[in-house]
Amino acid sequence: LSDVFQAAFGLIDGAERIFMTAHVNPDGDAIGSLLALALALRAKGKPVTVGMQDPTPASCAFLPGAETIVPPPVSGDFDLAIVLDCENPGRAGSLESVVLNCPKILAIDHHPSNRSFGDAEIRDTSAAATGEILYDFLLSGGYVIPPDIAECLMAAIMLDTGGFRYSNTSPKTLRTAAALREIGADIPGIYRQLFEDRPGGSVKLMGIALSRLEAAAGGRIHFAYLTQGDFKLAGAGENETDGINSQLIGILGTEASALFRESASGGVRVSLRSREWLDVNRVARVFGGGGHVRASGCTVQAPLPDAIRQVIAEMESQLDRKPED
Ligand SMILES: [Mn+2]
């Protein structure tokens, strides 16, 4: 057992009331990882409260335990916070204060981070998903992985690898997936629910976004935006934008893409993608966000046209600094 795993199990064993959370604008890795660990801890008799700033996306509602996630405000006398899939506690959004009020913090994540946090921090940037780390973590702690937990971990891994298509899909990722498949995780069912099934409103939203397609940097950047009026017109929620950025980054000649969403809670949410070399995590960090080299996000507190101008200008300037190879 590695030292950091041992420290993490020490925190869990010593805790009476555990609070768990993950990043704002959650995806299948955030939700799947939260639910997998919550199911495992509850099976051991640990009282766990799972709180999230933002609602669970409809694509993840099928995951076992999804109905147990509570929205803010979260109150309770917790003695341990477990923060998943976050490079810093601020990624928990408005629930950061609940995390920081806990006397102990355990972080489990696979994003690159500038500064460590937590009383124990399991950070493995070679893992494709936080769910991939959790598989090893649970096994090493002697936890059994029943089919419901396997389903959650498989969803976590499949979301962050795009269904085993992205470059982060390692041999180890596939070995973990193979083990989860043997336990019974339903790959085609998870794929369909995470990536294909969608309400008509989100398809209409995609149509609106794509009709706004714009290029910058001579076609090396493609971007689109959605206003509050667009969400009303389409009858879709702000988190029903899955797949739009994949369309943008797929345009031939594009190195980086951005989708801008005007948020009802203020500011503009920006999702960034890159194809081959641009580190969009560096772009997102300029605006206080973060994520991965190929997929990142941030929120810009500015009117939509200003947010677009600022972020596109930063992307252009970083595109112009391509290292010679
Ligand atoms: Mn992740």
The portion of residues forming beta strands comes to 15-25%
Bound molecules: manganese (II) ion
**Main sheet?**
6 strands, mixed
Structural Rg? 19 Å
Number of helices: 12
SSE ordering = HEHEEHEEHHHHHEEHHEEHEEH
Mean pLDDT over the full residue set: 96
Low-confidence stretches: none
Shape: globular
Indicate the percent of residues in helices. Answer: 25-40%
* Broad structural category: alpha/beta
Strand order of the largest sheet: 6-7-8-9-11-10
Query: What is the terminal-to-terminal distance?
Result: 41 Å
- State the total count of DSSP E strands: 11
Please provide a written account of the structure:
The chain is 40% helix and 16% strand. By secondary structure, it is α/β, with parallel strands linked by helices. The strands form two sheets. Strands 6-7-8-9-11-10 form a six-stranded mixed β-sheet, sandwiched between helices. It has a five-stranded parallel β-sheet with strand order 2-1-3-4-5. The longest helix is centred in the N-terminal third of the chain and has 16 residues, at 28-43. Bound molecules: manganese (II) ion. Manganese (II) ion binds at residues 29, 85, 110, 129-130, 160.
Summarize the structure.
The protein is an alpha/beta fold and 325 residues long. It is 40% helix and 16% strand.
What's the SSE blueprint?
Blueprint: H1 3-13, E1 18-22, H2 28-43, E2 48-50, E3 80-84, H3 96-101, E4 105-109, E5 120-123, H4 130-140, H5 147-160, H6 171-183, H7 187-196, H8 200-211, E6 214-216, E7 221-226, H9 228-234, H10 244-249, E8 256-262, E9 268-274, H11 280-286, E10 290-291, E11 295-300, H12 304-319
Parallel strand pairs: 1-2, 1-3, 3-4, 4-5, 7-8
Antiparallel strand pairs: 6-7, 8-9, 9-11, 10-11
The structure holds manganese (II) ion.
